[in-house]
Amino acid sequence: MSSDTDASLDKTVLAVSFASAVLYLFQVRSSPSYSRTLVKTSSTALLSYLSHLLGGPQFLTGALALSSLGDAFLAWDGDLASLCGLSSFLVAHVLYILLFLQPQHAAGFQNLLMARWRTATAGGLALLVPVMIATLMPKVGNPFRVPVMVYSLTICVMALTALTLENGRVIVGTTMFTASDSILAADKFLVPETTGYRGWMRRAAWVLYYGGQALITLGFVEPAW
User: Fold this and answer.
1) What's the pTM value of the predicted model, to 2 decimals?
2) Choosing a second label site near 124 at 20 to 30 A (CA), which of 4, 19, 91, 180?
3) CA separation for the pair 60, 70 (Å, rounded)
4) d(CA 41, CA 67)
5) In sequence order, what are the residues at sequence separation of 6 or more whose Cβ sits closer than 8 angstroms to the Cβ of residue 24?
């Protein structure tokens, strides 16, 4: 396969991924269906394929694939689907943590003290997560309490490990991903069903989520433009 063909395939995969993400943005509040699920999962599944195509880290490819699986579960209603989706994303976050801690990428946790913005962001996360957990727990049903607590702590660790990197795309992407999860948690457990702005919350969460995943991906792999 020629380099021109490789570049064309890279661009096509990324373009279709982006198009799927944009299309799903208009289906966020639609009723669950197989077509809606396909559109939603295609966006991150294609990012996983792009990582594989470009020889990206296996942890990255795996994290994106598990995120796509989580998207598939969360495209449907019900507690079982939610728990399966939460579990998929939990493992995806663990893979991201392992990726960020790899010696060729990691700069060490001492890096958190090397710049004020890193220290401030890490401190903000350390304060936000306990407050978020304390706010959510009274609203969360018994089946979700332990999973939500473990998930919240895991995504906090993921964000902290990302802050140790010297990779701006990954840091911004992980921050967007974390913000997306916070909005989704508020939407699911804190905001009344009849609230008029829930649609905008879900759209904002999707934009932050896909944008975050795309930036993390492009922080580790470089398509041939």
Assistant:
1) 0.92
2) 91
3) 15
4) 8
5) 36, 39, 40, 43, 206
Cβ within 8 Å of residue 160, ≥6 positions away: 109, 112, 122, 125
Return the number of other C-beta atoms located less than 10 Å from residue 117's C-beta.
Answer: 9
**152 near 129, Cβ under 8 Å?**
yes
Instruction: Give the count of beta carbons closer than 10 Å to the beta carbon of residue 99.
Output: 25
DSSP assignment of 97-126: HHHHHSTTT---GGGGGSSHHHHHHHHHHH
Residue with tokens 């279709």: 16
CA distances from 120 to 117, 152, 181 (A): 5, 19, 20
**3-state class of 32 per DSSP?**
coil
Closest C-alpha among 219, 155, 223, 206 to residue 21: 206
Alpha-carbon Rg for the chain in angstroms: 18
CA-CA distance, 94 to 154, in Å (whole number)?
7
> Which tens digits make up the pLDDT trace of 77-111?
999 999 999 999 999 999 999 999 987 776 677 77
- Enumerate the domain spans of the chain: 3-220
Answer for the pair 24, 205: CB distance below 8 angstroms, yes or no: no
